[in-house]
Design a protein that fits this description.
Elements (H helix, E strand, L loop, with lengths): L1 H9 L13 H6 L5 E3 L10 H10 L5 E4 L1 H9 L3 E18 L5 E13 L6 E6 L2 E11 L5 E6 L4 E4 L11
Parallel strand pairs: 1-2, 2-8
Antiparallel strand pairs: 3-4, 3-6, 5-6, 6-7, 7-8
Length: 170
């Protein structure tokens, strides 16, 4: 989204936009400091090519997943995705940061959610050379769904909501 690009540019980041079908080899050849897997439309379970690319990038470049990107990264580390009965759409969705107890009011637009093993907040995930410790960082106060993940050993962080607080396609 333009608002996400503008947010990174305002922080002084050099931003390049790549199509979702860009192979990992080409991404790595660009030598990015980090990679954002951004939001997008549709069922995240129907994007196996993107999940495969992200799996190839794990541990090789820091990753930030936002909305659909959160769901793609989750699948790349072996987590499953399920369809929500109603989805989360619009503004004023309360999300709790588990480490601090702080509640953020977020903007959201998605119909799917990430599932963790036994609905745990700490668990192990697949990584290219074995496993890595992962943790849920944020949960929805509406329905308890996973709103944020961290896998520090892989430098992976994801958010289900729109951290720049600007939902929509532009």
């Amino acid at each position: 989204k333009k608002s996400l690009l503008d947010s990174f540019a305002a922080l002084g980041c050099r931003v390049s936009v790549l199509p979702a079908v860009t192979p990992a080899k080409i991404i790595l050849a660009l030598r990015p400091d980090a990679l954002v897997i951004s939001n997008g439309p549709g069922d995240p379970r129907s994007l196996p090519y993107l999940v495969k690319t992200v799996r190839q990038l794990l541990g090789r470049v820091p990753l930030l997943g936002i909305c659909l990107g959160h769901q793609i990264v989750a699948q790349a580390v072996g987590l499953s995705i399920h369809k929500l009965k109603f989805g989360h759409h619009g503004v004023n969705h309360p999300v709790k940061e588990l480490a601090t107890g702080k509640v953020e009011v977020t903007s959201q637009n998605h119909g799917f959610a990430v599932a963790t093993p036994r609905d745990a907040d700490r668990f192990w995930v697949r990584r290219p050379d074995g496993t890595a410790r992962a943790l849920v960082t944020h949960r929805s106060l509406y329905d308890g769904t996973v709103e944020g993940l961290a896998i520090p050993d892989l430098k992976v962080y994801t958010y289900q909501y729109h951290p720049e607080a600007s939902p929509g396609p532009h």
